[in-house]
Amino acid sequence: MAISEMHVVLSDQHIPFQDTVLEDLTIEFLKEHKPTTIHLLGDVLDFYSLSRFDKNPARLTTLQDELDGSARYFRRLRSVCPKARIIYSEGNHENRLRRYLWSQARALSHLRTLAFEELLGLGDYDIEWVDSHSPYKIGSLLFVHGELVRRASGASAKGHMDKFGCNVIHGHTHRLGAHYHRTYSDMMGAWENGCLCTLDPEYAVKPDWQNGWSVVWFNGDRFHVEQICVVDKEYVYHGKVYKHKPPRIRKKK
Predict the structure, then answer these.
(1) Cis-peptide, bond into residue 247, ω within 30° of zero
(2) CA 63 distance to own-chain centroid
(3) From first to last of its 253 residues, what are the pLDDT tens digits of the chain?
(4) Cα separation of 159 and 166, whole Å?
């Protein structure tokens, strides 16, 4: 029997609005299972300060804070998976940087140091960068951040399958869901990947989002997707219950 390769798909952390408990849970998952490949499917950073939408004047988060947060996150990924391939796909929030430079600072837009890969120092962590116009396939499965949002869980997955005409896994919607479609000669599937950010953002009240991530097993030309839904900071994977363990506070003698 051929040995399957384990891939883990993470998306929509929205640093600095990431759920820190979820981050710890995913880091522990990676540490235990040591996947071959980690896919970061976009919106790892929020780029809050570059948003064109109204911002909370009381929030003191700066762009440098976000960049520092991403560096800390990348270090954590590499510390638990030093040999894994890590692929980072551009999301619409990362694209805020390009839009800002093109609209507000055109003279600076060609500086190599402001290219996304350089700004985040992705080379220091051996992380591959994929821009939003170049989604990639492994086998017959397309990996993309995504751009469509439908109302119900699984509906956005169907929308992306219809758009691309193939098996696809995507982020962007902050929902978990799946859609399957059988043609005369083929079977296709599509999955939306959940999110790793807080479920209570400042701009929406109790949105229909789900925390979680996906595992994809590749075995030759075939693949299998497992989705992990985190509820109340706990999840079940292969019969085992995982929950957050807060750090112990040592009492002073």
Answers:
(1) no
(2) 19
(3) 457 899 999 999 999 999 999 999 999 999 999 999 999 999 999 988 776 654 555 555 788 888 899 999 999 999 999 999 999 999 998 888 777 777 777 776 677 777 788 888 999 999 999 999 999 999 999 999 999 999 899 999 999 999 999 999 999 999 999 999 998 889 999 999 999 999 998 778 899 999 999 999 999 889 999 999 999 999 999 999 999 877 666 666 5
(4) 11
What the chain holds in terms of domains, given with CATH numbers, is: 5-243 (3.60.21.10)
Query: Distance of alpha carbon 220 from its chain centroid, rounded?
Result: 25
Q: How far apart are CA 242 and CA 233, in angstroms?
A: 9
Query: How many angstroms separate the Cα of 174 from the Cα of each of 22, 29, 60, 184?
Result: 14, 20, 25, 32
213 in Cβ contact with 26 (< 8 Å): yes
Token readout for 228 is: 């992990």
pTM for this model (two decimals): 0.91
Residue type, 54: D
**How many angstroms separate the CA atoms of 71 and 64, rounded?**
11
